[in-house]
Each structure stands twice: as structure tokens, then as C-alpha cells.
């Protein structure tokens, strides 16, 4: 039987309302709903084919052979759905720094979910793709869709998946990414959030506040209230990072340059240029702004950061199959 190869492209997403903590580690069920914006600048292309001659899964990331333990666990889910016994050949190219707080796992597992399911002969709906991608990385559930996306926490495998809030954005909106450090994080998201759940005295308040923030930001998006949306996103991010500092032992993903970028955003805002920052589990700062203000903001940022540290992104699309050239 001829080997069928499928290649999928998925884009990263940046959470504006964070999830920080899992209530089920195996199923990757979050403690709270989250909301993100899919970006066009960062993406992963993943090629998958099942081959009966393989003795185990083969996985290459950016042309380098990788350990297959985690990938095989994910591929076992695909094999079970498709009643397939063959191992797979997986080649993935990340157009985003890996494990540096820029959501590379989101685009990686969203692309893998589509390419692997198609190669296995499955025709999954987008909710089903979201459920599958979630089993590799929680945030990958959101990268199935473009634009603004909400991941519903659910209570089991079937009820936890992402839904689109608004995919085709007709809005003067963009995001500037200040790349502080591309290196692998010292504390993984998985380890960090579990430590917070177990030791932060403020975690119950975070869950309640995250629910309120989610409701408020969805209203702001619907009403096209950029200032309100940006304020909620910025404050939600700072509450999440405050949890890390209240853990035992406490930890932080911030670096001095992260603080510098945040202070510059606050200075710009005081001058009437409305922009807002957010950070995930890493030092890199993402700045929400209007497209019309982006050139002025970039000019100011270049006084403190190198040109190659500054990347401009807009709303990106959901996962899709591509033709490999």
C-alpha cells in the first residue's frame, strides 16, 4: 500500500486570558477557561506519513532527530482512533523559538494533530482536532482556530476543547513581540504551574478572577473596546506572574530586559500611545497595539532593543493542510 504523506501548518497563539494550572495532568484539563489571539508571524509545518516498514516512530525537529517518547504517546492516540498499527515518520519545522515562552508547543501539536489524523485516514471535525491537539499541549487546542479563541476547561476529554470567538478580524489590531531570550526556559510551564497550584496561597482567588477577566474581555472584544481589552489582558498577565512569585519556592520568568520593555510600554501609554503588554511562561514581552501606532512604538523600542529582537505580527489563521514545495 502506498504511503500517504500530509503536511499541516499551524500558527502560535498568545493567551490574553491565561490558564495556569491543570486539574488533570493526563488529559490536560485546565483549571480555568482561557482566551487567545492566533498570530500570523510564528508557525510550525509538520509532515506525517505512516509506514509499515518502520519499527518505531521517527521524529525530526528542524532537521535534527529527537527523542520520540512524548510524540509516540500522542501518536498512540491517533493510532487508537484510526485502528492503525503502523509507526509514523514525522518531520517538523518550527518557525518560532522552541520552549522560550512563544507558544511553540501550541503550533507544533496543532499541526501534528491535523497532519497525523489525515495521514491515518481520519476526517476529524475542528472540535475533535482541538481535543486531540490538547492532549499534546493545552494551548494547542486554541491553535486549531484563527483570531480570538476560547479554550473551554470542560470536565473530561470530550468537554474540554477550544471554540472560535472571532476568526476573521476586521480590526486595526497587531502585536509586537520583543524577543528577550530564545533559550529554553529554566522552569517549564508544566513544572511552574503545578508548583503554583500546590503552594501559592492566592491560587483560589486567581481562578475566580480569571473567570471575571474572561467575561469582561469577551465583552470588550465584542464592543471593539481596545483600551478595555488591553487593560484586562495586561492585568491578567501580571496576576498570573504574581502567582509565581507567591509560590514556594518562588520563581519568575522575568529578566531585566522584560521589565525594561514593560516600563517603556507604560511610558508610551502615559504619552497617549495606547499599547498593552502580556507575557506567557517566559521573558519575552508581547505588546498589543493598533496597527496605526505600530511604527511609532517600534521606533521607540529600537532605542532600547536591537531591530532583530522586534517582530510585528497580526491575527493569524487556523490550522490547515499545505502543499510541500
TrEMBL record:
Gene3D superfamilies given in the database record: 3.30.230.10, GHMP kinase, C-terminal domain
Example GO biological process: isopentenyl diphosphate biosynthetic process, mevalonate pathway
EC nos: 4.1.1.33
Ranges of residues in domain Mvd1 C-terminal: 175-308
GO molecular function, one term: ATP binding
Top-level taxon of the source organism: Bacteria
Enzyme class (EC, first level): lyase
Ranges for domain Diphosphomevalonate decarboxylase-like N-terminal: 10-162
InterPro entries for this protein: GHMP_kinase_C_sf, Mev_decarb, Mev_diP_decarb, MVD-like_N, Mvd1_C, Ribosomal_Su5_D2-typ_SF, Ribsml_uS5_D2-typ_fold_subgr
A GO CC term attached to the entry: cytosol
Keywords on record: ATP-binding, Lipid biosynthesis, Lipid metabolism, Lyase, Nucleotide-binding
Family to which the UniProt record says this protein belongs: Belongs to the diphosphomevalonate decarboxylase family.
Protein known as: diphosphomevalonate decarboxylase
Native source species: Liquorilactobacillus capillatus DSM 19910
Amino acid at each position: 500500500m502506498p504511503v500517504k504523506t500530509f503536511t499541516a501548518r499551524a500558527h502560535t497563539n498568545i493567551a490574553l486570558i491565561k490558564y495556569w494550572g491543570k486539574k488533570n495532568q493526563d488529559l490536560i484539563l485546565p483549571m480555568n477557561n482561557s482566551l487567545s489571539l492566533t498570530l500570523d508571524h510564528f508557525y510550525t509545518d509538520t509532515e506525517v506519513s505512516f509506514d509499515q516498514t518502520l519499527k518505531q516512530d521517527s521524529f525530526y525537529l528542524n532537521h535534527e532527530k529527537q527523542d520520540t517518547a512524548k510524540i509516540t504517546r500522542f501518536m498512540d492516540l491517533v493510532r487508537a482512533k484510526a485502528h492503525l498499527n503502523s509507526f509514523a515518520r514525522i518531520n517538523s519545522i518550527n518557525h518560532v523559538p522552541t520552549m522560550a515562552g512563544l507558544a511553540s508547543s501550541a503550533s507544533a501539536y496543532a499541526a501534528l494533530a491535523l497532519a497525523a489524523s489525515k495521514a491515518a485516514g481520519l476526517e476529524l471535525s475542528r472540535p475533535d482536532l482541538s481535543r486531540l491537539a490538547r492532549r499534546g499541549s493545552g494551548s494547542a487546542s486554541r491553535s486549531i482556530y484563527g483570531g480570538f479563541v476560547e479554550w473551554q476547561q470542560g470536565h473530561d476529554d470530550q468537554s474540554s476543547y477550544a471554540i472560535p470567538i472571532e476568526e476573521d478580524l476586521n480590526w486595526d489590531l497587531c502585536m509586537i513581540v520583543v524577543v528577550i531570550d530564545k533559550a529554553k526556559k529554566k522552569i517549564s510551564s508544566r513544572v511552574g504551574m503545578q508548583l503554583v497550584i500546590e503552594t501559592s496561597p492566592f491560587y483560589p482567588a486567581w481562578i475566580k478572577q480569571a473567570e471575571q477577566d474572561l467575561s469582561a474581555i469577551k465583552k470588550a472584544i465584542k464592543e471593539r473596546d481596545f483600551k478595555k481589552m488591553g487593560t484586562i489582558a495586561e492585568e491578567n498577565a501580571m496576576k498570573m506572574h504574581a502567582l509565581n512569585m507567591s509560590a514556594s519556592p518562588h520563581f519568575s520568568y522575568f529578566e531585566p530586559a522584560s521589565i525594561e520593555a514593560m516600563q517603556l510600554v507604560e511610558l508610551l501609554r502615559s504619552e497617549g500611545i495606547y499599547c498593552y503588554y502580556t507575557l506567557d511562561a517566559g521573558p519575552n514581552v508581547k505588546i498589543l497595539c493598533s496597527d496605526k501606532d505600530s511604527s511609532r512604538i517600534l521606533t521607540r523600542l529600537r532605542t532600547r532593543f536591537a531591530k532583530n529582537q522586534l517582530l510585528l505580527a497580526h491575527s493569524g489563521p487556523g490550522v490547515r493542510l499545505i502543499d510541500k514545495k
